[in-house]
Automatic annotation (TrEMBL):
GO terms for cellular component: plasma membrane. One of its GO terms (molecular function) is histidine phosphotransfer kinase activity. PANTHER family: OSMOSENSING HISTIDINE PROTEIN KINASE SLN1 (PTHR43047:SF72), TWO-COMPONENT HISTIDINE PROTEIN KINASE (PTHR43047). Its main location: membrane. This is histidine kinase. The chain crosses the membrane at residues 12-30, 42-61, 73-96, 102-119, 131-154, 166-185, 197-217, 266-287, 293-318. It catalyses: ATP + protein L-histidine = ADP + protein N-phospho-L-histidine. It comes from Litorihabitans aurantiacus.
Amino acid sequence: MLVITTRGLREPQTIATIVTVAWTLGLLAVTLSGLDRETRSAISQVAIIVTALVSTVLCCLRARRSSGRRARAWLLLGAAGFTGLTGNVLAAFTGAENVSELALLLALVIGVAALRSFPDRELKRPQVLRMLLDGVVVGGSVLFVSALVIFPALTTSNGGWDLTRVITIALPVMDAVLATFAVLLIMRSTGTDRVPLALVGLSFTMYAVADLTYAVVDSSVGFQFGTVADLGWVVGYALGGIAACHPAGAGPAQDAPATDGTEREGSAVAGTVVTFCLFIAAAVVQIQESLGAISGLAVALWFIVIGAVALRQISLVVTNERLRRRLEIRVQERTQELADLTRTTQLTLTSVGEGIYGVDPDGIVTFVNPAGARTLGMRSESLVGRHAHDELHAAREDGTPFPYSGCYIHEAVTQGVTINSEEDFYRRADGALVPVEVTASPVIDDGHVTGAVVVFRDVTQRREIDRMKSEFLSVISHELRTPLTSIKGAIGLVAGGATGEVAPESARLLGIAGGSVDRLTRLINDILEVERLGSGADPLELVDVPLEQVVRAAVDQTEALATQSGIALVVGDVPGTVNADVDRIVQTLVNLLGNAVKFTGTGGRVDVSARPAGMFFEVAVRDTGRGIPADRLESIFGRFEQVDSSDAREKGGTGLGLAISRGIVSRHGGRIWAESEPGVGSTFLFTLRSADAGADTADKPPSSTRVG
């Protein structure tokens, strides 16, 4: 067999198989012939030794032509064969049974290591455990029954546990473990590896069955070579040699993964069935040598027990395998769904034109979409792991940073509020400032805030348009004030009789003209006020003042209008001291109170109150009016915006009061927003920094709305 394979024939495994079959049939003929026992025994032992030697050499040659785990496996297989060969030689020529059996035990241990190394991919732990348990159940049953029926001398001996006795019991146990690993290897073999790995598994299985037969027969009636049982060792060694000759024995590239990206495995049910069948076959071989010493009832009982255990174990494996397959299908489906969802989310983040980034509860950036990275002139990965507020937000004009405690990100992750249309400046990688409009929303999982998502857009172009519009309005307003002053004066002179007595109808018309001039003048003044607030041209005069004093001043100015309209104006709890421009905040409150009275019916009520909110105080003006639709809660703070187009005709006003109020509050570093339930009433809220916190955010770029 060695000469044939080293000549490089095209199909060496075929030649090796033919030689093995002829060799086995020849030995079978010898064992069944009429030769005397000693002659048959000598021929059998020589045949075992020769077969073991050839198989060992072939395994070593295959190891030289392999690499990685496969080379190590063949080398261990050759070492196991050589160790077993040594034990056979010692048994045949020296009679040193203890040393021989110790060598055979070592060969079994090395064989287990070889079987463990053969798969090019790591075995799955549940599969290994399942096959081991099958081996323990069946092998343990065989060994237990054999010990009670065949090994009475070992189980009832009063002698100590000497080396001979330990080895005698250890050999069948190791054979059981070896056969279990061999069957596991058979079931693991797939694809091009199937033939050589299956041959290796069958090789060790035959060897284990022969060993078990030897142990049982030797302990009961004394084993002698020259019987059919010797074929187990010969065939076992020969199958290992055939596997080494197979072209696929070298295996795939070192530690190469499966070509389809998955790891296929054999059937767990088939593996269990094969395991039980092999051990039952081994038990039959063991018992057939001593049937005369065992009663028929004991034999029947033995097979009933083993058969029941086998059927029970197989049924459990079938059930578990079905459940596992179903679970795997569900897991795969769920994994695919999650992968599709993740891909869709990723595509959405990648495709959206607005900048989006996420932060954890500490304000650390967790992701940035490509549009956001482009706007900031940075790479997405360079922003991840940095503090969003410190990295992105522009500093004050004097270079000092705005405090994180007043940032919309901090409020989103600590208070769980959503900040809408916050205007800010972000710092690009090149140091340039980008005006942005921001929405910060908390991420809430099971009632706990786990971070926030911030959406921002570059509003440079919009700001330029607003600037041009503001300049236009400013010019027009200034140009209108001069002729309006002349018109107002001329109307006054005519109405006062400077040109003669005025008829009643003319006086009525002059009054209408004068009122229209007054309204137009107020409109122009409001426009100029908005422009001054937007440009910051009118500096704030900040002082520490009790908040209640400011509220009382605004209520005093509005109380007459409320009384005239039949509205109850109530001041609630107003604690604390704020750092503010008193006149500007009174102006803001007068605007809010005036609107509340204007849009609340007779008999209604307007409440003013305040409460602490961290470093701020939150002032609230609540009414019982008609309410505001949800889609108008933000737009009403724009210029010339009113809830309904008919309000200007029915209620009067220019639509600039809330825009002016927002500008004032923003200049103070606070925010203003509205909450409403149509038909129930509205609440306008704004924040002012407490006197204890100082004016850290005063004159900050305008901010806007949040939803709490």
